[in-house]
Amino acid sequence: MPLKISALVPVLNEEGTAAQALWDLRLAGLDEVIVVDGGSSDRTLERVQPLADRLLRSDGGLFQQLNRAAEAATGDVLLFHYADVRFPRSGRIAIERQLVDPSVVGGAFRLGFDSRRITYHVIAAGANVRNRFGIGPFGDQTIFVRTEVFRLLGGFEPDAFLADLHLVQRIKRLGGFQILSGVVRASVRRWEKRGILRTMLAHWRLTLLFMLSRGRRLDSEAKRARDLTRVR
After folding, report:
1. Which of 37, 89, 139, 181 has the highest count of CB atoms within 10 angstroms of its CB?
2. pTM for the full model?
3. What is the CATH number of the domain that holds 193?
4. What sign has the CA pseudo-torsion 170, 140, 61, 83?
5. Mean pLDDT of 151-157
6. How many Å apart are CA 231 and CA 140, to the nearest integer?
């Protein structure tokens, strides 16, 4: 029997990108699309409602939203996908091919950006190299995991430093974690708004803080650095 894949999409004022993100998931053949709104004040809910199987609400922050969606999901595999990231048409097939191997319990996609500027190609290449050294992937690379494994781990720990990377590290302790050859393409709007150099330095600082934190809870400095790079 084919695996049932549930896509979980957190949104917060994403009226310009969320509908396209859901269309991508539908075109790729995802079985279930669950959207969790964090309190949008724009037209996000109006845009996503026709494309979502379930529309939930949670105001506890990004990772609380994802935990809420995971509780409601009925799939064998959970796919955590941000509303300003483009999902590849062949994404479902790539996931199924990896999960044929029962020792593989999760994975993610390679990072790309929805821009032709060479600067972003260089940044994405650096991120994909970083993944090979165990620093990553982060949530904007569309992490997926077998549902039974996610629930065994107790879901995301919202107060952990970089809760997405923290989850990845815990998944790896239970089985294989594969970076697929397919690419998801993140929006560059926040990079453009905040400045490429400033955002890149914030990412580097955040990575260093993570390496030094060893999984400790977030302090005020770490929270400020994280917020500069939040893909929401």
Report:
1. 139
2. 0.88
3. 3.90.550.10
4. negative
5. 97
6. 7
Q: Is the dihedral of CA 122, 123, 124, 127 positive or negative?
A: positive
pLDDT digits (tens, 9 = 90+) for 175-213: 999 999 999 999 988 777 778 778 778 777 777 777 776
**For residues 57 and 48, what is the distance between their CA atoms, to the nearest angstrom?**
13
Number of domains in the chain: 1
CA distance 24 to 85: 9
Distance CA 184, CA 218 (A): 28
Residue 59 belongs to domain spanning: 5-229
Q: Which two tokens stand for residue 100?
A: 């044929």
Mean pLDDT along residues 62-68: 96
Count CB neighbours of 2 within 10 A. 9
Tell me phi and psi for residue 66, to 5 degrees. -65, -40
Q: How far apart are CA 137 and CA 119, in angstroms?
A: 20
- Residue 220, pLDDT above cutoff 90: no
